[in-house]
Amino acid sequence: MEFMLADFNLLFSCAIFFVFILLLIEGLGLIIGFSLMNALDQLTGFDLDADIDLTAGGLTSLLGWLCLNRLPMLIWLVLFLSSFGIFGYSINYFSTLIFETSLASYLVVSSALIITVYFIKLVAAPLTKILPKNESSAISNHSFVGKLAKITQGKASFQNPTEAVLQDEYHQKHYLLVAPQSKDEIFIEGTEVVLVEKNENYWLGIAFNQNLK
């Protein structure tokens, strides 16, 4: 206990403590009919197209790589915080055991964070087969046909998609990859696009003409 409460373990102890707080709130919430899990999913309000090519850059690839689109936010937070705390404790334990002193805080924290991120990537994918998928709006991607999306970064040309965001009627944001349907069109950041067809890895769209509103 003395080791866990040591100054160099303060951040990791806080992470573990926060995990217990989250679980306590969820447990008490179930008694009174409140679900923290559902509340967090509604609060974050984003989803990703599960079929996109995650080699693309931007927020789409980052969130998809971390499996934030496939796990309930509460589960993801518990996994992240508990892993961060445990790896941090482990690094400090072995450093004090071998060197008889703790390493610099920035080294321990950054190392624990990097290990945690890769651990989540390794563990989260199998968990998605056991735990329910995060679908706060219960909307199928195929219902996006005819919806309006906005290009969030970069430039999209024919067969070269870039990131776009779509907000549904539940105010949930969906991050997609979109490319022009026509060879003559180019989408730049801020362009509003009508989604017309789902390709294997991205959506095809046409520029929205505001004069036709």
From TrEMBL:
InterPro entries listed in its UniProt record: YqiJ_N, YqiJ_OB
Keyword Transmembrane: yes
Record domain Inner membrane protein YqiJ OB-fold: where: 143-204
Coiled coil (residue ranges): none
Residues annotated as transmembrane: 12-32, 73-91, 103-124
Keywords per UniProt: Membrane, Transmembrane, Transmembrane helix
Pfam family, one: YqiJ_OB
Span of domain Inner membrane protein YqiJ N-terminal: 9-117
Protein's name according to its UniProt entry: Inner membrane protein
Originating organism: Pseudoalteromonas tunicata D2
